[in-house]
Amino acid sequence: MLEILAPGLLTTVQDAGRKGWARYGVPSSGPLDAAAFAAANTLVGNPPDAAALEITLAGPTLRVSRECLIAVCGAAFDLWVGTLPVPMWHTVYVRAGRIITFGARRGGARAYLAISGGIALPPFLGSQATYLPGGFGGLDGRALRAGDRLPLGGAAARDVMQRAGRAWPTDRRPPYTPEPTLRVVLGPQDDYFTTEGLATFLNSAYRLTPEADRMGVRLQGVPIAHRGPTGIVSDGVVAGSIQVPPDGQPIVMLADHQTTGGYPKIATVLRADLPLLAQCLPGDSVSFTAVTLAEAQRAFSKPCEGCE
Amino acid sequence: MPDYPRILPVGEAAFTVEFGATVDETLNRQVHALDVHLRARSVPGLVETVPTYRSLLVTYDPQVSRADVMRATLTDALNTLTMADLSESRLVEIPVRYGGEWGPDLADVAAYCGLSAEAVIELHAQPVYTVAMLGFAPGFAYLLGLPEALATPRLATPRLRVPPGSVGIAGAQTGVYALATPGGWRIIGWTDLALFDPGRAEPFALRAGDRVRFVSL
Predict the structure, then answer these.
(1) Which pLDDT value is given to residue B86?
(2) How close B41 gets to chain A, by Cα (Å)?
(3) Is the pLDDT of residue A121 over 70?
(4) What value, to the nearest 5°, has the Cα angle with vertex A262 and ends B180 and B13?
(5) What pLDDT, on the 0 to 100 scale, is given for residue A299?
(6) What residues of A are in contact with residue B7 (Cβ under 8 Å)?
(7) Fewest C-beta atoms under 10 Å: which of A88, A193, A261, B128?
(8) For the structural domain made of B89-216, what CATH number should be given?
């Protein structure tokens, strides 16, 4: 059992997401920073897609009812087990009954806490991922609250306990920065924009507005000029799709995105680069660089790429 | 004007196959035909498909099927496509209580269209619609086939909560809400048919490509 003593600002249960329901209007959900999520699971000996906590901006206080391993990856937080400070991106042994406390955030937006055995809530449409707009998945489709108790999967084997102390190699952590350059594949509706509009998109920096959540991130900067119509007949959207509404200010869709949308999409962010965006805060500045589809596919990696 | 159909990249792990740029019954039939065609075969690397009015989104695993291979698969499928016979798709009857507390915007729709409320109900319950796509929110069904005489603009101010089961009109479209969401469609009726029930083997009552008839109660 994992008990929530204080929930933090927005803490949800996420696994790798729901697949196969987009045709019914259900997005995949799952972690916004899939790289940190998979690293945390791998560090505690879980499959990389096991259910874990996504922690946003302010961290929770938790108590474990049994001995376990935890790992916290992603946004940089001060972290304690009992009174002992412990590092992020490490496998940490926790005795039964100990309290895990998140302190100050030093950078980034979202951290992932994985626990050996994984969180074991009943799946909804095949997944434990919380989808807040639909009110389903995770624990009753909502963010966690003080007093919630999360069941855990099978107890970690003794040899798993020997993992304690392991670190995730620095060179396999995403290169987080408040000013990331995100690689994109242009299209599918890049022909809805003028040559100047495309040049603006690729040569300007865009600031994150406060309208940034699990559904998507509104950016603000030099408006991107449409060639003609500013709307399309709604079509399919993926995480990473960059929609440009009539005001020319781009919106990058994230894991809880609507499955269809009626704004032309100038480009799609590579999945490998979405973790960088997931860690940006309002006021941070992102820019975009176009790569070919072949280059994008060479950069494609499953979140658990390099997993042990 | 671009040549259709066209296969456009949506990042490194999806393509969208566009059959045209408009809301059109023939285009939508082509979308469903390609969807049925791909789903009937085990295409290596195919993850899922999302049919919409005039295009099919195809997501795939590039570590199983590289872009050029998937593009060739889609091109072949387009070349051998036979139109899905939608007359063989399911016909789902949706019982609707029109007007009153069930359809708070029925009177406004009637006034806008210059019809009586009874005429709006009769016209709305007449056609056999096609579920063009599901989107916007889980289970929200966009239907093709609304009589032109019923086209009514959206509400100027969307409602914060539209109850599940609401049947609405927006522009030339009609649709059904499966979950409680905010929404700007004009609500003319309500169905107690559970459009979404996670306990059912098939949680969503409607699939893209289904035919639908509203039955006035």
Answers:
(1) 58
(2) 16
(3) yes
(4) 100
(5) 87
(6) none
(7) B128
(8) 2.40.100.10
Task: Compare CB distances from B134 to A24, A135, A265 and report the shortest one's residue.
Answer: A24
Provide ipTM, 2 decimals: 0.94
Residue B138: what pLDDT? 93
What distance in Å separates the CA atoms of residue A71 and residue A167, rounded to the nearest whole number?
Answer: 9
Instruction: Give the distance from residue B14's alpha carbon to the nearest chain A alpha carbon, in angstroms.
Output: 8
Q: Compute the distance between CA of residue B171 and CA of residue B174 in angstroms, rounded to an integer.
A: 8
Mean pLDDT computed over A104-128: 97
Band (pLDDT 50/70/90 cuts) for residue A307 is very low
Of A16-30, A150-164, B25-39, least confident by mean pLDDT is A150-164
Q: Please state, in angstroms and rounded to a whole number, the distance separating the CA atoms of residues A222 and A201.
A: 8
* Residue type for position B41: R
> Nearest CA to CA, how far is A124 from chain B (Å)?
8
CATH, range B6-86: 3.30.1360.40
Q: Tell me which residue in A187, A236, A271 faces B9 most closely, judged by beta carbons.
A: A187
Q: Are A97 and A1 in contact, with CB atoms under 8 Å apart?
A: no
Closest-CA residue to B83 (of B140, B26, B133): B26
Which residues on chain A are in Cβ contact (under 8 Å) with B144?
Answer: none
What's the confidence (pLDDT) of residue A306? 47
Mutate to test the interface with A, among B12, B50, B64 (most CBs of A within 10 A): B12
Q: Which of B3, B10, B176 is best to mutate for the A interface (most A CBs within 10 A)?
A: B10
Give all domains of chain A, ordered by start, each with its CATH number: 2-171 (no CATH), 181-299 (2.40.100.10)
- Chain B positions touching A235 (Cβ under 8 A) are 16, 18, 52-55, 57
Two domains, one topology: B6-86 and B89-216 = no
d(CA A163, CA A308): 12
Q: Look at residue A7 and tell me whether its pLDDT is greater than 50.
A: yes
DSSP state for residue B153 in the 8-state scheme = P
Provide the residue ranges of all domains of chain B, joining segments of one domain with +.
6-86, 89-216
CB contact under 8 A, B10 and A19: no
Cβ neighbours of A21 in B, within 8 Å:
138
3-state secondary structure of B6: strand
